[in-house]
Amino acid sequence: MVRPERREDAVELGKTALSRAMRKAALPLQRLLGGNQLLTIAREMHLADVSALYAAVGEGHVSAQSVVQRLVGPTRRTRRRGRRHRRDRHPVRALTRRVLAAAQGATSASWSRG
Measuring CA to CA, how many Å separate 52 from each of 33, 81, 84, 112? Predict the structure, then answer.
């Protein structure tokens, strides 16, 4: 059993880690920390309450990033699905494809002339 002092320390560490991860992801801290979303995530992770979620993060059983991904997940996933899939996410790959396509086009044009 975890001593009460250690649990309180773990809860504080978890709150700090989670708020840092939320700030890094540009999430509204006050609205999310005050709402029921963290309680929903805690229950999805089979934890009793938000305090247990903070303690799990503070003790290293759950990463703060995974909690943030669960918070952000539905909104970013729907945005990605709505967008057309872009093959050329990497500019170097896109440029390479264009150069190769142009070279192949020039080669096939020179063959057809001859």
Answer: 14, 33, 40, 72
8 A C-beta contact, residue 18 and residue 25: no
CA nearest to 69, candidates 9, 18, 34: 18
For 62, residues 6+ apart whose C-beta sits below 8 A from its C-beta are: 45, 53, 56
Residue 82 has pLDDT above 50, yes or no: no
Residue 61 Cα distances to 40, 52, 53, angstroms = 18, 11, 9
Query: How far is C-alpha 64 from the chain's CA centre?
Result: 11
- Name the E strands within 1-114: none
